[in-house]
Every structure is written in structure tokens, then in C-alpha cells.
Design brief:
7-stranded parallel sheet, 27 helices, 7-stranded mixed sheet, alpha/beta, 26 strands, about 675 residues
Length: about 675
């Protein structure tokens, strides 16, 4: 049978996602005719084209004359003012940099430029917007099925709608089954839009939805029978055998009840298959990237994702609902098979950068894989995730570094032993400290993940996390940070009273993987905000903060040591040094004139809006306030601290130190994304 896979927007643009190449390889081996497209990268290439953005600006000018909504008019006016500060050739230049360069400074600049392009393109769909990692309306993610379906039906806030309609027209009558894969909730708008458009063109087309995020949303899907107006089938969990059986069902060879891991509708009710399958992964073929058009991606070097195992061998963390994806069964390929497949992938795709996407590799696996790589003389550079298990040793890390291991991401989560025990992480902080140091001493880049806000965490625990960071800052290279999110399939969700939280009531219209809750002991939002400010003090750079992703680091670490990379990052992100100086209230030799090159003022009633742009960092910002005197002095080279003092004096009754700090970070110091900060003008 003919099956066509689609990976819709919105997702990262530097490398292909692993799901479709994996499924395509399996079904091709079974004799099916498989084609696929990464529609995310195709559409983002079109949107971020210079001519398309110029067309957008022309349309925005026309829209401004006819738009009656005051908020949308104001937003369009501000975006148009920003475009007057830009040379539009910079967008094609940024894409060219990403596709031909790997230098961190150049890549970070180019990524920021493209965020401005996304900001401009989104304006016609206000209040919807998209950035590289977010699709939102009024700054909030979309988490009800009614809203998702409404957006899929219309054009006003459907950012990718026109492109999806055009593609639906091309494929609606060509395939026996169309599979749409989603790895994130940010892809749901596009997935629903595409399915609805295909059904409009060909109501009898068979469409199946699948993807890594869906098992965490099983209950939401079961409460949403209307979703099956557009999707005939939804697979939750592993998809290889499920898709194969689905194709057999479409050929009339079996009953639908025999298909594993599938949801479907009968008589208006969502039914779940009672047959669940965990794949024998050692029997699966090598991932097939033949449909990938590598030149489309925003990266000079090819980076390939790989899975040596499925599931988590620990599988006990109280915040995690991974069992909804892979069940209780952990499976891993044998070492010879793993390294053989790595060699084939590297050779077939002319790529020597591999990312292990496993939940965690064991110390034994890292050691054995490294030995086999060295034995075969395979020249690859790789990254992986690991638990902080005592079995990891300095000797294993030294061996792995020789075999090309350059980055390890450790899920530390917290620096308080009490909180780690509540999480059931199985981590001893003394052991963790030793492992992080051993890995760093071996030359490996340590990326540490932290989670704050876990139920039961108090200020004393946050101080423990700070202490851990301070004691180990020489061995932590980057830091991924996030707040606790309530997974609907976690132990915390199932026993909220045990963890001192109350799950908020939610309607059947809710459509999302995690849920809102309240702490019985009060909200710790203030503590978390203070911790985020605290992170600015460190030598290591939170990965989300500087716009540097692990793929970019892997490519650079393949040819340079950690010390050189850190020096390059500091040059690429000068705001880090400046933010540290501001936070500590010390005088700075950093001059504002280096960052604010050009700005435009818009008069709106009694207020003034200033739009700033700097080609050095590719940043823009808007701020309401009477800032002429500060800008004039800044261009003449006033010291940063003097600008702080002038601003505080001017607005001493209108704002506090934190507002000034935000102003400096976002406007003068040019953080890594577009932000908006409003200050009421006071006379």
C-alpha cells in the first residue's frame, strides 16, 4: 500500500526528527510504498524568505488601513516601525549563515535574526504568534480541543493555514494512508488544519495521527470524539506494528480490534485497543533518512538522532509518566548491532554527528559502545543522556571521550537530597558531585537539567540547589532549567494528596499533556523567579538563555576543546558579563553605544513607544517611556552604570530596581529573543 508521512510545523529547524525515518524504514522492509516530508522545515524556509517577508510588510500596511481592532492596529503599527529599521537582505543572509557556518557567534546571531522574521510574519495573525519553539495566542499555549478545532477551521489566527491548504490539495487523493506525526503540542494546530483540509478535498482519505506527545494525552483524546471527524485513527505508543496491522486492516486482512496501540470511534464513542505492543527493537531495521533533503535544514553539519533503547531502566521518578509511552518494559539493542547501525548511518548520510535520544544510557552501555567504536575505528562524535549512577567512573568517561563522546546531559533535577528523595530519583548528591567532576575532567561537556517547584520543595531546598551549583560550577558547562509540570500519568498526579497539592478541576474540553494544580502550602512562584535571576551570576550559561542548543555545541566540540568553546560563547553572549555586573551593582566599562544602534519612536496618545534594533545581536524590543535623554547619552558612550542611575532617578516613583534590571537586560543587553516590557509614562 501507499503511505505518506508528514511532520508538520512547529518544530526545530536544524535536523530531522527521528519518528518518521524510523517508521518509514520499518514499513519499507515490509514491502510497502512509503514517502514522507518534513513540512515544518519546508514551510519555515518559505516564511523566512526575504521576498515573503516583504510581501508580509506590504500586506500589513494594507491591513492597518482597514483593521478596526485597536490592539491589533497597535501591534501592526509597532511591527511596521520595526521593519523600517531593517535591511531585509539580512534574513537571507541569516539562513545562509546557518546553512554554511558552524561558528557559534555567527550561528547565534543568525538564529536571533530569524526570530525577528517569525515575529514580523506572525503580526498578520495577531494575537497568534510563533517563534522557533512556541505557537501561542495572547502569549498562551492552546490547550482546549474546541479552540484547536476552531483555529483549524479559520484563517485569522492560523499562521500556517495557507501553506497547509496548498499541500493538502496536492496529496488528498494520492495515498492509501496518510500519517501525521507530532512530537509536541506546538504541532497540533498544524496537524488538525492539515487533516481537516485533506478531508475537505477527499472525505474518504484515511488519516492516522501519531507521535511522542500523544500517549501523555490519552485521556484528552478519549474525551474528544469530534477529533475523529478529521483523523480516522490515532496511535498512542510505539507505532511500527500498529501501523503494519492498520494497513492489513485497510486491505481487509484483519479486524480493527486486533490493531495494537490504537484509538478509533464507533457510534460516537472513542474506543481503545486492548492489545498493546512493545516492539522488539533489536528486530527493527536501521533508521531510513532517504526522504530527507538535508539542504533544507538550518545547519551546516548534518546531525542524526539514534535510539539504542526504548523505555527507562530506572522508570521510578514520581514526576514522570513515561510508562504511558513505553509501558514498564525497558529494551536495549546489543552493542555490536548499535555500533554497526551507527556506522551505516554515518556512511549513508555522510554524517559523523550522532545524538542518542535514549532516556538514559547505562555506564555499561557507554563503556561497551565506546570500546566497540574504537575497535572498529569508527570516526563519530556523539552525545547522550545519563543518570547519575554510581557505576559511572572517570575511566569510563576517559574511554568514551576517546570514542567521540562529547556531551552528556544529566538529569540532576535538584540540589536538595530531600527533594530528590521525594522525586524518587535514586540519586545520591555526593555520588552526583563525583560523577559530574569525573566527566568534566575527562573533557566531556556536562549539560545539567534542573527542575524547580516540585511539591514539597521549600526555600531551604532552593538554597541547597544554589549551594550545589556553586560548589560544582567549574564542572557544569550548560544548564537546562524548567519548572515542575504535572504529568497526567505520573505518580504525583495519581496521588496528589501524598505530595501536598490539589489538582485543579478541568473540563472534558481540556486537551494537553499536563495539568494545573495548587500547592497546599502556598505558591512558590516568587522563589522560582528569584532563582532565575540568581542563575545569571554563573560562568555556565543556561542553554535556554543564550540560544545555543546542544546540536550546535556537539558540532563545535567535535573540533575544539571545552575551554575554546566557552571562550567563544562568552564572546557571542556579551550580555552575560554585563548582566552579572548590573546584578552586583558594580561599575562597568561596557558602553551602551555598542548595543543600541538605531531606534524609532511612535507617538500614541500621551505615551511614546520606542523600538530598538541592533545588528550586532539581531535583537529588537519595545518600551514605553520618555527615554530620549538616555538614548542620546548612550550613543555618546555613557557608561552602563550611569544609564542605570539616570533611569532610576527619572522613574524612582514609577518602578523598582527589578524593572530597571529588566530594561537593561532586554533593551541594552539584548537577550536572545524578542520581548515586550511596558512602563507607564510618569510626568
Amino acid at each position: 500500500m501507499k503511505i505518506h508521512f508528514i511532520f508538520p510545523p512547529l518544530w526545530e529547524c536544524d535536523s530531522p526528527y527521528i519518528s518518521i525515518p524510523t517508521l518509514a524504514a520499518f514499513l519499507r522492509k515490509q514491502g510497502h510504498d512509503v514517502s514522507a516530508i518534513d513540512l515544518n522545515i519546508k514551510i519555515q524556509n518559505k516564511i523566512l524568505d526575504t521576498e515573503e517577508l516583504k510581501r508580509t510588510v506590504k500586506y500589513l500596511r494594507e491591513l492597518l488601513d482597514s483593521e478596526s481592532d485597536e490592539m491589533k492596529r497597535n501591534h501592526i503599527q509597532e511591527v511596521l516601525a520595526l521593519t523600517e529599521l531593517l535591511d531585509f537582505s539580512v534574513f537571507d543572509q541569516a539562513k545562509k549563515v546557518l546553512k554554511t557556518k558552524k561558528d557559534i557567534k555567527e550561528v547565534v546571531w543568525a538564529k536571533k535574526i530569524l526570530e525577528i522574521g517569525r515575529y514580523i510574519y506572525s503580526a498578520q495573525f495577531f494575537p497568534a504568534h510563533f517563534f522557533s519553539n512556541e505557537y501561542a495566542i495572547n502569549g498562551k499555549t492552546i490547550n482546549t480541543i474546541s479552540t484547536l478545532m476552531d483555529i483549524a477551521h479559520q484563517t485569522t489566527t492560523n499562521i500556517f493555514g495557507d501553506y497547509l491548504r496548498q499541500y493538502a490539495e496536492k496529496i488528498a487523493n494520492k495515498f492509501d494512508l496518510i500519517g501525521i506525526s507530532v512530537a509536541s503540542t506546538n504541532q497540533l494546530v498544524a496537524a488538525l488544519t492539515l487533516a481537516s483540509q485533506i478531508k475537505q478535498k477527499n472525505h474518504s482519505a484515511k488519516i492516522c495521527l501519531g507521535g511522542a506527545v500523544l500517549p501523555y494525552m490519552r485521556e484528552s483524546i478519549c474525551n474528544s470524539p469530534d477529533l475523529f471527524e478529521w483523523f480516522d485513527y490515532i496511535i498512542v505508543g510505539e507505532g511500527e506494528t500498529a501501523l503494519l496491522k492498520l494497513l492489513e486492516y485497510l486491505e481487509g486482512k484483519c479486524d480493527i480490534e486486533t490493531i495494537p496501540n490504537i484509538l478509533y470511534v464507533q457510534n460516537g464513542k472513542v474506543l481503545q485497543s486492548q492489545n498493546e505492543v512493545c516492539e522488539k527493537i533489536q528486530m527493527l531495521p536501521v533508521i531510513d533518512y532517504r526522504y530527507i533533503e538535508w539542504e533544507d535544514y538550518f545547519s551546516k553539519e548534518r546531525v542524526i538522532s539514534y535510539l539504542a533503547s526504548r523505555g527507562c531502566y530506572w522508570n521510578k521518578c514520581s514526576f514522570c509518566g513515561l510508562t504511558s509511552n513505553y509501558g514498564q518494559k525497558y529494551r536495549v539493542k546489543n552493542i555490536e548491532q548499535i555500533v554497526t547501525e551507527l556506522g551505516k548511518l554515518s556512511c549513508t548520510n555522510q554524517c559523523n554527528h550522532i545524538v542518542f535520544n535514549d532516556e538514559a544510557l547505562t555506564a555499561y552501555e557507554i563503556k561497551a559502545i565506546s570500546k566497540e567504536i574504537l575497535k572498529r575505528g569508527l570516526r563519530i562524535y556523539w552525545s547522550c543522556l545519563c543518570r547519575l549512577d554510581k557505576q559511572h567512573t572517570k575511566e569510563i568517561f576517559q574511554l568514551a571521550y576517546k570514542a567521540g563522546l562529547r556531551i552528556i546531559s544529566f538529569g540532576l533535577e535538584n540540589g536538595s537530597q530531600k527533594v530528590l528523595n521525594l522525586m524518587n530519583k535514586g540519586i545520591d548528591l555526593h555520588v552526583a558531585q563525583r560523577i559530574i567532576k569525573d566527566s568534566s575532567d575527562a573533557g566531556i561537556w556536562n549539560n545539567i537539567y534542573l527542575m524547580l517547584g516540585f511539591p514539597g520543595e521549600v526555600e531551604e531546598d532552593i538554597q541547597c540547589t544554589k549551594t550545589f551549583l556553586e560548589e560544582n560550577q567549574d564542572y557544569i558547562d550548560t544548564l537546562g532549567y524548567g519548572e515542575f509540570r504535572l504529568d497526567g500519568y505520573s505518580k504525583v498526579f495519581k496521588s496528589p494528596e501524598e505530595y501536598g497539592i490539589q489538582v485543579e478541576s478541568y473540563s472534558k474540553d481540556y486537551f494537553g499533556p499536563d495539568y494545573h494544580f495548587n500547592y497546599n502550602t502556598g505558591d512558590n512562584r516568587k522563589q522560582i523567579t528569584q532563582f532565575e535571576k540568581y542563575l545569571l551570576r554563573f560562568k555556565f550559561n543556561p542553554a535556554y538563555f543564550i540560544g545555543i542548543d546542544l546540536n550546535l555545541l556537539l558540532v563545535n566540540l567535535a573540533h575544539n576543546d571545552k575551554k575554546y568553546i566557552k571562550e567563544t560563547i562568552n564572546e557571542a553572549t556579551p550580555h552575560m558579563k554585563a548582566a552579572d555586573l548590573v546584578n552586583n551593582k558594580r561599575l562597568s566599562d561596557l558602553y551602551v553605544k555598542s548595543y543600541v544602534e538605531n531606534y524609532k519612536c511612535i507617538n500614541r496618545g500621551n505615551a511614546k513607544i520606542y523600538l530598538f534594533y541592533s545588528s550586532i545581536s539581531g535583537m529588537s524590543i519595545q518600551l514605553i517611556g520618555d527615554l530620549d535623554i538616555f538614548l542620546d547619552r548612550a550613543k555618546k558612550g555613557v557608561q552602563l552604570q550611569e544609564v542605570v542611575e539616570m533611569y532610576l532617578k527619572k522613574y524612582k516613583d514609577a518602578c523598582d530596581h527589578y524593572v530597571v534590571e529588566d530594561f537593561l537586560k532586554k533593551v541594552v543587553l539584548n537577550l536572545n529573543r524578542i520581548g515586550v516590557l511596558s512602563i507607564e509614562e510618569r510626568v
